[in-house]
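Good morning,

Attaching, inline, the backbone tokens for the sequence recovery test we're adding to the shared suite. The designed sequence is right after.
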């Protein structure tokens, strides 16, 4: 009777000790390659380290949703199609339609977290963890582009947005000078041909470039000894340019080239006033682009594959951009980034004809 009572008392104690192995919760330093490190809780059972799944995945920006009783953790790994489920009740991990059966001792559940044996992070998710017991640190290495690494690269790119847009902040502006007279360049050539028993042919060309009264003056003289010197064969033009003046940018006097559909024998000699700039218009204006996406997502704006602006959507998911438009075809791309590495892309093309004028602008030919 005494032996039977001893058996009944000893066996339940042994079973409870097997289901609840003795563990020790400590704090270790998690060092992640190319990212940095942080202190995280850990569990050591018989010199084997267990790492908290939710804490590590949250630090790496990997989507994870623990259950209410901390019996399971679900989410997706980097890509939204790569879903996973860590099930402590059935001792299994489901990842990308593959089922990994574990032992009951491979996971440890506490009141605050669900811990997984460190070697399974590398075998299943490609996150190799090496534990150093002497320094109480864990080195995590991977060949994958983790969401936190991608977020750091994007943040660095956004910090250099002014450089990517080509904006240069100048400290000194040198204004153009308009001298009364300044001699520039003179190009001349003399060609003489003579045949035996024939007549002599001599041609003289002279090109002069000067500045007169603040405008450029170009003169081209042509002479041939076999033809009379005619004014219509000579070229001369004076042009004053000030692109900063909105009403009058160019004044031309002399022989002016005109865009005509029929040919004329004599050139046009006269004076022309216009507010057309000498430079080509590149910017047409801006276009307000607004829409709704997921709340607190980061939205990047690309124009012709160049990052020009970014912002974070508000709590309702609303975002708004002033899209710079240029003449011709512009490829506008929006990239959306979620808090767990989600990524979406939206593209559209905007075409601006070259004969369109920006708002509140006009030309006088």
């Amino acid at each position: 009777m005494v032996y039977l009572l001893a058996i009944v008392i000893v066996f339940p104690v042994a079973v409870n000790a097997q289901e609840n192995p003795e563990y020790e919760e400590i704090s270790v330093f998690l060092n992640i390659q190319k990212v940095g490190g942080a202190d995280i809780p850990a569990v050591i059972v018989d010199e084997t380290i267990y790492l908290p799944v939710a804490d590590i995945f949250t630090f790496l920006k990997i989507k994870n949703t623990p259950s209410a009783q901390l019996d399971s953790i679900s989410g997706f790994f980097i890509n939204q199609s790569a879903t996973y489920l860590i099930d402590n009740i059935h001792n299994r991990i489901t990842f990308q339609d593959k089922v990994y059966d574990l032992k009951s001792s491979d996971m440890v559940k506490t009141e605050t977290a669900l811990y997984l044996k460190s070697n399974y992070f590398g075998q299943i998710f490609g996150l190799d963890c090496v534990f150093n017991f002497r320094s109480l640190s864990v080195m995590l290495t991977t060949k994958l582009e983790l969401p936190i690494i991608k977020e750091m690269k994007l943040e660095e790119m956004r910090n250099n947005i002014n450089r990517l847009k080509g904006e240069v902040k100048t400290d000194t502006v040198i204004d153009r000078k308009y001298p009364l007279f300044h001699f520039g360049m003179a190009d001349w050539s003399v060609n003489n041909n003579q045949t035996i028993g024939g007549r002599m042919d001599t041609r003289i060309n002279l090109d002069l470039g000067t500045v007169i009264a603040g405008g450029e003056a170009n003169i081209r003289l042509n002479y041939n000894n076999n033809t009379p010197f005619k004014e219509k064969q000579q070229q001369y033009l004076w042009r004053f340019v000030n692109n900063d003046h909105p009403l009058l940018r160019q004044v031309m006097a002399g022989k002016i080239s005109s865009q005509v559909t029929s040919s004329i024998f004599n050139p046009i000699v006269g004076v022309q006033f216009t507010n057309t700039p000498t430079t080509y218009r590149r910017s047409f204006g801006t276009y307000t682009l607004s829409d709704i996406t997921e709340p607190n997502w980061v939205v990047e704006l690309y124009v012709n594959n160049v990052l020009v602006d970014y912002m974070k959507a508000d709590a309702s998911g609303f975002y708004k951009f002033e899209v710079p438009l240029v003449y011709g075809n512009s490829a506008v791309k929006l990239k959306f980034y979620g808090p767990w590495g989600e990524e979406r892309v939206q593209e559209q093309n905007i075409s601006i004809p070259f004969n369109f004028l920006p708002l509140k602008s006009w030309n006088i030919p």
